[in-house]
Write a structure and sequence with these properties.
Elements (H helix, E strand, L loop, with lengths): L1 H7 L6 E3 L1 H11 L8 H14 E3 L15 H10 L3 E3 L14 E3 L1 H8 L6 H7 L1
Parallel strand pairs: 1-2, 3-4
Helix pairs in contact: 2-3
Length: 125
Amino acid sequence: QRTVFLLAITPPARLYVSDATFAEYRTVMARPELRIRKGLRRQLLQLIRNHSHSVTISRSLQVTKDHGDNKFLECADAARADYLVTGNQRHFPRFWKRPKVITSREFISIVAPHSSHEKFLRRLQ
């Protein structure tokens, strides 16, 4: 996940967030079972703020099996993103034209060869 995050904030990739997705990141990172220290959480959220592109949701979607995941598809749709990266593909529609819903592994294989930090990323894996 660290590799995916670094790739997402490194050109040519672009990380898009809406108010709803940022709030979800904040909530998830605060879960006790993740054991993310408060200081590190603040740093991660600040990295997201500093390196992401903010989007305003342009239309409401009700297509995911877990309705809480619609916000991510809405964000990617509003950004006209090529990909939505998730570890939970089963909640998303199998056939969705754009963005294409992909796994972290697929994202790494698509973006890593084009990243300006390719050598650094190889060491992380």
